């Protein structure tokens, strides 16, 4: 088993070249946030912006428009049920689908639209509700470079492994049957990449609060849009998310996602130097 460390993250997060512009750092599309869980999409998008993504758009329920513009004026917005969603997916370099999406019929239709529009050159991060929909409706896996970010219950749904059976060895065997990178979130997160297993050395109980997973998806998306190859970008994102939460937790009982998001640019600057 390999370990994710600050040294590994430093090897990925490098200084920006002078002759770059916003298009150089990824065009990210966040698909999620129904009328009840708009905050999930907002946190994912915020994390992507603060982690350095060049352009971020959010496909969400229209009820979230004013909140998103108030909290994150850097992001663009579109109606997740509008015909424009298909075009937005095709134009993105990285797509996040699932944060706050829900599991009703509308959510399923949105997910199927996204899966149908994506292509093999794009990166797709499948999170939260989208994982549940894939597992419960036995959806075909999309043709894209996939990153899955399940918590333990979602991993149970996707892998078929009960919580008590989710050993490293069993999870690795299950992950081998699913295309892409598996970020198995828990109190000790492990990432399954091909034949390798990576253990995250950062993070702690201060992160155990709603929205932490949504924040992680945004950071992974931003890194996938900026750094190559994808596996190293995703692995560095997992570490950075937890390490910044540890920094917040030095002076706070809980590392709220919004607190972690605010600290991202400062920590990334330190890493790049």
UniProtKB/TrEMBL annotation:
Catalytic activity: (6S)-NADPHX + ADP = AMP + phosphate + NADPH + H(+); (6S)-NADHX + ADP = AMP + phosphate + NADH + H(+)
Cofactor: Mg(2+)
PROSITE patterns: YJEF_C_1 (PS01049), YJEF_C_2 (PS01050), YJEF_C_3 (PS51383)
MF term (GO), any: kinase activity
InterPro entries noted in UniProt: Carbohydrate_kinase_pred_CS, CARKD, Ribokinase-like
Annotated residues for binding of AMP: 185-189, 213
GO biological process: metabolite repair; nicotinamide nucleotide metabolic process
Binding-site list for (6S)-NADPHX: 40, 100, 151, 214
Domain of life the protein comes from: Bacteria
Occurrences of domain YjeF C-terminal (ranges): 5-271
Listed EC numbers: 4.2.1.136
The entry's keywords: ATP-binding, Kinase, Lyase, NAD, NADP, Nucleotide-binding, Transferase
Known function: Catalyzes the dehydration of the S-form of NAD(P)HX at the expense of ADP, which is converted to AMP. Together with NAD(P)HX epimerase, which catalyzes the epimerization of the S- and R-forms, the enzyme allows the repair of both epimers of NAD(P)HX, a damaged form of NAD(P)H that is a result of enzymatic or heat-dependent hydration.
Subunit structure: Homotetramer.
Family: Belongs to the NnrD/CARKD family.
Protein's recorded name: ADP-dependent (S)-NAD(P)H-hydrate dehydratase
Lineage per the UniProt record: Bacteria, Bacillati, Bacillota, Bacilli, Lactobacillales
Gene: nnrD
């Amino acid at each position: 088993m390999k370990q994710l460390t600050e040294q590994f993250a430093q090897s990925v997060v490098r200084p920006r070249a002078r002759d770059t512009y916003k298009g150089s750092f990824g065009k990210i599309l966040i698909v999620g946030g129904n009328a009840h869980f708009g905050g999930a999409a907002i946190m994912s998008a915020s994390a992507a912006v603060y982690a350095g993504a060049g352009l971020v758009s959010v496909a969400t329920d229209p009820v979230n428009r004013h909140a998103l513009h108030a909290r994150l004026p850097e992001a663009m917005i579109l109606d997740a049920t509008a015909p424009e969603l298909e075009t937005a997916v095709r134009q993105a370099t990285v797509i996040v689908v699932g944060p706050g999406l829900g599991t009703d019929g509308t959510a399923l239709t949105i997910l199927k639209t996204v899966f149908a529009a994506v292509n093999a050159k794009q990166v797709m991060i499948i999170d939260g509700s989208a994982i549940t929909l894939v597992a419960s409706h036995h959806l075909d896996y999309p043709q894209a470079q996939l990153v899955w970010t399940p918590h333990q219950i979602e991993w149970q749904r996707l892998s078929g492994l009960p919580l008590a059976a989710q050993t490293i060895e069993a999870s690795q065997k299950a992950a081998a049957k699913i295309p892409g990178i598996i970020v198995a979130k828990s109190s000790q997160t492990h990432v399954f990449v091909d034949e390798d297993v990576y253990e995250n050395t950062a993070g702690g109980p201060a992160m155990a609060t709603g929205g932490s997973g949504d924040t992680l998806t945004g950071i992974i998306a931003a890194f996938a849009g900026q750094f190559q190859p994808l596996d190293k970008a995703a692995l560095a994102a997992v570490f950075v998310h937890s390490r910044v939460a540890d920094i917040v937790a030095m002076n706070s009982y809980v590392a709220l996602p919004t607190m972690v998001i605010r600290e991202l640019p400062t920590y990334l600057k330190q890493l790049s130097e």
